[in-house]
Design brief:
The complex is a heterodimer of chains A (about 950) and B (about 180). Chain A has about 950 residues and is α+β, with helices and mostly antiparallel strands. Chain A contains ten helices and 74 strands. Classes of the chains: A alpha+beta (about 950), B alpha+beta (about 180).
């Protein structure tokens, strides 16, 4: 954009007025606030104690960080209200007043209505204040003023003697007096011990108008009063005196909307007739250039960096550097890119050259500019004028490139060429400067120091000079010469470093003294007497007499192509380069910047003479768009204020009041932060470190940082912001928090778990041991059983009886004998085969039993009766331990007499609840056989190992019954 | 006749006669008023239906007055006795009153529901405090119904609470007023 315009200027120089307007516009930044493509009307601006700007609008409240507006919603998002007043009390609580008369506070970043028992006003809230006792006061247009005292609301209105209920503004004066501006003058109110006291200051006291629209503090218990019709005045409350400044006497600009005292200026915004600045120093009132961008300004504010903020219904917020960066109105002036040098003389006239290299003097008096032109003989449009200097006697020294030095009498405009020093005849002058009665000239052929004598008031008298060349200064090429406060003369040489002349002795400082670049351009001195100089490409150096400290890109210098150093009247070192000014505070090392972001056009920075100081000591710059002055302000905060705007847990805001202790799964943190710096908010660098997590600082431009999975521990998020990568004096904000250990990682929980595992292991081992024992005893029982069975079968009685039966059978029925022997053999085979098994089917057992029964039937014949009442299916399903049935049968035969008189009747059946019932009638033998009960006991033991179901033995008078559980 | 009653009648009777337009003044003599002391150990409520009230809807001024000894409904007769003799000292200060002016500019001759605030002097126990009291007002067919709730701090009115009954008496008493005023 600027390049395009630049070309435009070259081709169409008739549009100078337009370029001037352009240059002015460029110094202001507008920040429109739109909703649904419509401009939102701003009613008030407020700066909180952190320096944050809040904007009250028809669409509620916004905060503004210099880049974007963030709306602060109501807790109930459906609410909306027109904000008319904003305030922060001493406990940092924010108070927001609305057109509806309601009042809200900001709680956890949301607006919440304040609901006193007394009800809220019904009319527009116009302003707030807090008195020294901490009572909150607010005014309502049409109701008077309210005081919130110990949670009770009091109203002061016409019934109490207030001159009018339309209160436009309240302000605190000394002794807790409240000044209330009304439609009927100023009311001075006090409310102490339940007593209201009101006195009225009106036209009868010298107030020029009834209707007071605004009141601002002017210091020393004095106040600027803005009026509806008759301008403004100063009210000194202590002396109860009204003073009307001269420019306000015949006020013709109508209603005053807002006033601001900043930069030694009273800024006055009128309703319809633009924006004015009143300077009490010279009692002057001038239209402020900002009038062109902001109409109907209704609120004014100065931020912590000294910028002016204006709110206008049509343009949103407008930022202006105000007086700190000011364009000098020079109408019809030459294209400024040709200017190599400018000078502001002691009368405030500005000297510069036009395209033809004619010398022009501009005088600005009472806003009118007059110019006077001087053509210097010998100077053509090809001979650049490189330097301008006004000496002790007011004469103007003009240095040219190739035509030497001209000296001009500014009164008569007579001039001559300096010819007495042959070295300077037709030489190329690089710079002319000096102090008091000394003038320094440096050229491409050497340097001279001129000591002015009283006769040199007249330029036509000869000058006394001393020449310095390569023999003394080390080189003939000297860019500039500087005399410090201790009368030492410093030479900035081309390639030979810095040369210092003190008491006729030369001292040389160069790359042997840690200076990286021996091409020195410009020298200045700070208030402590340190020498500062710039080099062609190694930045600037500070020399305290002992060592050199370099300031380069890492220290915050924005551009190493530095042409001039100056010390401004605030004591800062101004580093001038093509793209702007770096303002270095020599005490802190902090650097702030004035560049295109503040509306600075390209500086004619290749020229050492393109920067000078005006009569007030302000830095005056020649830029492609015009001559600007920069006035440094000593007490302005030129570093960003770091704020943590919100801390989020899983992207949801953590409430301000919430504790900073989190559980183990609350571990996703997001920090949103801002470095508040309204001069150039986009340029902020951030440096963060999460202590307890990061070991190093991280530099970023992002304004948000997320930590997704933090482990338990204590953390502190530290965030700093700075204008460059040098964070030496950066402001820091922190947020400390703790994430608790998960309960399953705490020592007690681990201990409990270990104990539980140990006891489970113990139980398992115990159980297994028991199991093994059981298996072992089962095995034992089985062996015992097998032994019992075998012993029974090879019981001599059984064998003896069997063999007797066999013998008798062989004799009588040899055929049956064979069958008998076969059964006997099968019986023994079964015993041998089945003894190792745990379970066999009922079927197998019964088949085995048939062999046994066959053998026994041969012996007892029909006296032994067997009934087996078991279905084929049951035989297949059920299992029992092998040989158990046979053993029980054997027992029955063994323990009972079996004879014709006493037949033995054995019945085997399955009960309904799946027991095998073995029942025999009782006919006990007289003597007990040996080993009696062993077999049954053995069966019971075996069953115990196999099932929970018990073996039941029923021994009544008639029957002996054994119930064996059947196993599937 | 107690002093505050005198003021009451002076204001209004004088007014009515001088104005001579009765419709501008609405009044009641049976407005109800109740209070509630919600202390940790005891809840005390009492009420009276003998509140006198007058509102001049043109001048937006009003007066309400109540005889303290007309409050009934205490937890015990002894409590009522203490209330009258020890705390509010009824013989010395027989009435409580609230007189003042309505802040909002509302036309009460038009039917409707309004929320208004009244600024005035609340006199209890002989101590006058300036107060703003919010009320809901319904105007319907010549009847003005007023309902309001507010709190009275005992300390504001020099009503001392002996330490013994501290837990039985709230320092902040909630008061509720309801009154239907007619012009007659």
């Amino acid at each position: 954009m600027s390049k395009v315009l630049y070309c435009f200027i070259l081709t169409a120089s008739a549009f100078f007025l337009f370029t001037e307007a352009y240059a002015q516009l460029n110094r202001y930044n507008t920040f429109k606030l739109e909703k649904d493509n419509r401009q939102v009307r701003i009613n008030s601006i407020f700066k909180n104690n952190q320096g944050y700007l809040f904007v009250g609008t028809d669409n509620g409240l916004y905060k503004f960080d210099g880049i974007k507006y963030t709306r602060i919603p109501f807790i109930n998002t459906e609410f909306n209200d027109t904000v008319t007043a904003i305030f922060q009390d001493r406990t940092n609580k924010m108070w927001i007043g609305f057109r509806s008369g309601r009042i809200a506070n900001i709680i956890n970043n949301k607006l919440q209505y304040f609901n006193p028992e007394e009800g809220t006003p019904q009319k527009k809230i116009t302003s707030f204040l807090q008195d020294s006792e901490g009572n909150l006061w607010f005014s309502a247009q049409g109701e008077g003023l309210y005081c919130l005292k110990q949670n009770r609301l009091y109203l002061i209105n016409t019934d109490d003697g207030l001159s009018d209920n339309n209160v436009s503004k309240i302000i605190l004066a000394d002794n807790d007096e409240i000044l209330a501006g009304t439609d009927q003058g100023i009311n001075v109110c006090t409310f102490k011990n339940g007593k209201k006291n009101i006195s009225v200051i009106g036209p009868q006291d010298g107030l020029p108008d009834y209707i007071v629209t605004t009141i601002i503090n002017a210091g020393k218990n004095s106040f600027w009063i803005g009026l509806q019709d008759n301008g403004f005045c100063l009210y000194d409350r202590s002396r109860n005196k009204i003073t009307i400044p001269k420019p306000a006497e015949a006020w013709k600009f109508g209603q005053i909307n807002a006033m601001l005292q900043a930069q030694n200026i009273l800024w006055i915004a009128t309703q319809k007739n633009g924006f004015y600045k009143y300077s009490a120093l010279d009692n002057s009132l001038n239209k402020a250039p900002e009038s062109e961008v902001a109409n109907n300004i209704n609120a004014l504010l100065e931020d912590d960096q000294g910028n002016l903020w204006l709110s206008s219904p049509g343009n949103g917020l407008v930022r202006s550097p105000g007086e700190s960066l000011k364009l000098i109105p020079i109408p019809g002036s030459p294209p400024f890119e040709h200017i190599h040098t400018i000078l502001c003389d002691r009368n405030g006239n500005i000297w510069l050259t036009n395209k033809a290299n004619e010398l022009i003097r501009f005088s600005v008096t009472n806003g009118n500019t007059t110019e006077k032109k001087l053509h210097l003989n010998g100077i053509t449009e090809k001979t650049d004028i490189t330097s301008l200097y006004q000496d002790l006697y007011g004469n103007i020294w003009v240095g040219s490139m190739g035509k030497g030095i001209y000296i001009v009498n500014p009164e008569t405009f007579k001039y001559r060429v300096l010819t007495e020093n042959s070295l300077f005849i037709n030489s190329g002058i690089l710079s002319i400067n000096g102090n008091e009665n000394t003038v320094f000239c440096s050229s491409l052929s050497g340097a001279m120091v001129v000591e002015l004598q009283p006769e040199n008031k007249d330029i036509f008298n000869n000058y006394r000079f001393t020449n310095y060349d390569n023999k003394s200064t080390g080189t003939n090429y000297i860019y500039s010469i500087f005399k410090d406060s201790r009368n030492r003369i410093w030479f900035a040489t081309d390639g030979k470093g810095l040369t210092m002349l003190s008491n006729d002795r030369f001292t040389y400082y160069n790359n042997l003294d840690q200076i990286k670049d021996n091409r020195i351009y410009s020298i200045t001195e700070d208030r402590k007497g340190n020498i500062w100089f710039s080099t062609s490409n190694a930045g600037i150096y500070k020399f305290d007499g002992k060592s050199f400290v370099n300031f380069g890109i890492n220290e915050g210098i924005s551009n190493l192509n530095i042409s001039v150093l100056k010390t401004d009247n605030a004591g800062n070192i101004i580093v001038v380069h093509k793209t702007g000014l770096d303002i270095l505070n020599p005490e802190s090392g902090n650097i702030s910047y004035i560049s295109s972001g503040q509306g600075l056009s390209e500086i004619n920075a290749q020229d050492i003479g393109a920067v000078t100081k005006d009569t007030a000591g302000n830095i005056m710059l020649s830029t492609v768009a015009g001559i600007l002055t920069y006035s440094g302000q000593p007490n302005i905060l030129q570093r960003p204020v770091t704020l943590i705007e919100s801390v989020q847990l899983f992207l949801k805001d953590i409430k301000d009041t919430a504790s900073h202790v989190f559980s183990h799964d609350e571990n996703n943190f997001t920090f949103n932060y801002t470095g508040l710096y309204y001069t150039d908010p986009e340029k902020i660098y951030y440096k963060y470190k999460l202590e307890g997590f990061d070991t190093n600082w991280v530099i970023t431009n992002d304004r948000t940082k997320n930590f997704p999975k933090l482990g338990p521990g204590s953390y502190t998020f530290r965030i700093q912001s700075a204008l460059n990568r040098n964070f030496k004096n950066a402001h820091e904000a922190t947020y400390s928090f703790t994430i608790k250990q998960a309960f399953y990682k705490t020592w007690w929980f681990v201990l409990i778990c270990l104990l539980a595992v140990a006891s489970l292991l113990y139980l398992y081992i115990k159980n297994r041991e028991k199991e093994l024992k059981k298996i072992e005893s089962l095995r034992q029982e089985k062996i015992q059983f097998q032994f019992e069975v075998l012993r029974n079968q090879i019981n001599p009685h059984f064998l003896f009886n069997s063999f007797n039966t066999l013998i008798s059978a062989i004799e009588d029925e040899p055929h049956q004998a064979v069958e008998y022997a076969e059964h006997l053999s099968a019986f023994f085979r079964n015993v041998v085969n089945q003894r190792d098994k745990d379970l066999i089917t009922l079927n197998d057992e019964i088949n085995h039993l048939y062999s046994y029964i066959f053998i026994q039937e041969r012996r007892y014949g029909e006296w032994l009766m067997m009934d087996i009442l078991i279905s084929e299916e049951q035989k297949k399903i059920f299992h029992i331990p092998p040989l158990s049935l046979q053993l029980l049968l054997e027992n029955a035969i063994k323990h009972n007499a079996v004879s014709k008189e006493t037949p033995l009747h054995i019945r085997i059946s399955v009960t309904e609840d799946n027991y095998l019932s073995i029942r025999n009638n009782k006919n006990a033998k007289s003597g007990k056989e040996k080993g009696a009960g062993m077999g049954l006991q053995n069966i019971i033991s075996r069953y115990k190992l196999l099932t929970d179901k018990p073996v039941t033995v029923i021994n009544d008078k008639q029957y002996f019954i054994v119930l064996l559980p059947l196993l599937n | 006749m107690p002093k505050s009653f005198l003021i009451f009648f002076l204001i209004f009777n004088g007014l009515i006669h001088s104005e001579g337009v009765a419709q501008k003044v609405f009044s009641t003599n049976k407005g109800s008023i109740s209070f509630r002391s919600d202390a940790p150990l005891e809840l005390i409520t009492a009420s009276s239906n003998e509140m006198l009230g007058r509102v001049d809807i043109e001048k937006k001024i009003f007066a309400f007055i109540i005889k303290i000894n007309s409050f009934v409904g205490f937890n015990s007769p002894l409590q009522r006795e203490h209330f009258n003799e020890n705390y509010l000292e009824t013989t010395q200060f027989p009435t409580a009153s609230f007189t003042g002016k309505i802040i909002e500019d509302i036309d009460f001759s038009v039917d409707g529901t309004y929320t208004i605030r009244a600024k005035g002097s609340l006199s209890v126990h002989g101590v006058v405090q300036e107060r703003i009291i919010k009320s809901d007002v319904i105007v319907k067919k010549g009847l003005i119904s007023i309902k309001s709730e507010f709190t009275v701090l005992l300390a504001d009115h020099n009503i001392a609470i002996p330490k013994v009954v501290h837990e039985k008496l709230a320092s902040e008493i909630k008061v509720e007023v309801k009154a239907d005023l007619t012009s007659s």
